[in-house]
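Dear U.,

Please find below the material for section 3 of the report. The protein was modelled together with magnesium ion; I have listed the sequence and SMILES used, followed by the predicted complex structure.
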Amino acid sequence: MKTLALHNLKGGVGKTAAAVNLAYLAAANDVPTLLWDLDPQGAASWYFHGEPQEQKLKSVFQGSTPVGRLVVPSPYENLKLIPADLSYRYLDILLKKVEPPREALKRLLKPFSEQFALAVLDCPPSLSHLADNIFEAADMIAVPVVPTFLSLRALEQVQAYFKQEGLDVRKLRPFYSMADRRRGLHRELIEQPPLAMARALKAVIPYASMVERMGERRAPMAAYAPSEDPALLAYAELWLEVSAALRL
Ligand SMILES: Nc1ncnc2c1ncn2[C@@H]1O[C@H](COP(=O)(O)OP(=O)(O)O)[C@@H](O)[C@H]1O
Ligand SMILES: [Mg+2]
């Protein structure tokens, strides 16, 4: 099983939109997929109609509940879900009690390799202990970057953190998200990408109301957009790059 994390230090950059659409596209391409929502806000869980399961997370760490019990169905074939709830705000503390502390999440994911070929982690925006666990567990960390200087700075901060902590920088794969080519700065940064984007995935997710409407439809846009929709084509391209890099 391969593990793909959607992470960024910043919120509101399209992590959840990408996690939900990539998980959907993986499943639609016959890859048995588990989406684990690690963000206490539970947005990915909400899109996939996953009921929150208060208390269960703690009992997994206490050893009284097998981690597999956290899994619930999604409305889609080949796609299952571990929903988040507000108790996920304690995940940082729970993970710290496990030895070695950075490998707790990786170990929790291990049993899933029998049933799934891909785990997609939708991450909260932080550089916390949970993030350390995510960086350790993930084979690829896809980082949505809005083509603005502040968003690029957040990427550079994560890249610097990786170097400082001796983490594998090659795992970090940024991509442009919420890109609006009508804006001069967006266009410039896409056409002449700065150094931080050197190992970027090529797909550029456009700013599109079809993506925003996911909230109204409560579904990944890949499930309802017409096949020629530009945002859908961009997510499909992103999926092709990710699946090729992960050899799925
Ligand atoms: N490509 C896009 N175009 C337009 N709106 C988007 C796009 N991606 C995300 N959004 C919207 O922006 C908001 C934040 O997106 P989300 O994926 O939840 O970000 P994050 O998980 O990084 O916080 C949501 O309301 C979402 O619908
Ligand atoms: Mg999110």
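For the text of the report, you could mention the following: The mean pLDDT is 95.

Regards,
Y.
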